[in-house]
Amino acid sequence: MAPLAARLVTGLVLAGTVIGATLALPPPVTIVLFACVTVLGALEWSGLAGLTGVGRRVGYALLTVAPVAVAVASDAFTAQLLWLAVAGCAWWVVAAAWVLAYQRSGAPAPRGRVTLLVLGVVVLVPGLAALAWLLLRDPVHVLVLFAIVWSADILAYAGGRRWGRRRLISRVSPGKTWEGLWCALAGTLLLALAVNAWLAALPPLPLLVLVLATFVGAVFGDLLESLLKRLRGVKDSGRLLPGHGGVLDRIDSLLAAGPIYSVALYSLKL
């Protein structure tokens, strides 16, 4: 199968699985499904960090879902999951500054195994916590989050291929362009407004703030993983998904967008 065809088929299967599970399964079951995906992502992250040994890598992967499992099992799970998402938002402010600093000077460039493993925890745990919080609040919000991230990804790819000229952040991810970014931003905002007008669901201004914040998070989630792969000298995080690479290559944007979407949703009282 050609790479583009494989990418399309894999994307459709993944999208269908996520939408079907979110709509058809009870939220706790869907949380378990997302936790399994997080474990796979954590296994890939541990490999990128240089962790060796099956037992240690599996132990690390299980560690990334443990805080969310404890929170979901507790009586105050809503607050605990939201606080994990808040912690994730704080981390992504730091991560955005790091990515921009690396673009300017090529530093800092942490390569130590322990540092990279800690980074994996602060990326993966809040991402899963945000999805769990959204599912337990209203599964529709999970679909909205995925729709924002997916539309941004597709429009950035299409716009970059058609009009891309100026590199967005060459030292981190040479393939991304400013033209692709603006196409993705404009298209995602217009799509959100069109769907919202059809459903008459939310006031336009808070909706735009929510979508814009989520979009920015998705961009930096993608860029951070690109930076990690660049530091490790690899193109993809794994080979599990035909045409896409690894699990991390598919969820990197969501890991940042999820906490930001959740906290923005709560803060805007939507």
The total of helices stands at 9
Number of domains: 1
Give the low-confidence spans: none
Order of helices and strands: HHHHHHEEHHH
Count of distinct strands: 2
**Rounded mean pLDDT score:** 88
Give the helix proportion (percent range).
Answer: over 70%
The structure class reads mainly alpha
Q: Which strand order do you get reading across the main beta sheet?
A: 1-2
Assess the beta-strand content as a share of residues. Answer: under 5%
Shape: globular
Distance, first to last CA = 44 Å
3D structure, described in words:
This protein has 9 helices and 2 strands; from the N terminus they run ααααααββααα. The longest helix has 29 residues, at 77-105. The chain has a two-stranded antiparallel ribbon with strand order 1-2. The mean pLDDT is 88. The protein is an all-alpha fold and 270 residues long. The protein is globular, with a radius of gyration of 18 Å. The protein has one domain (3-267). Helices cover 80% and strands 3% of the residues.
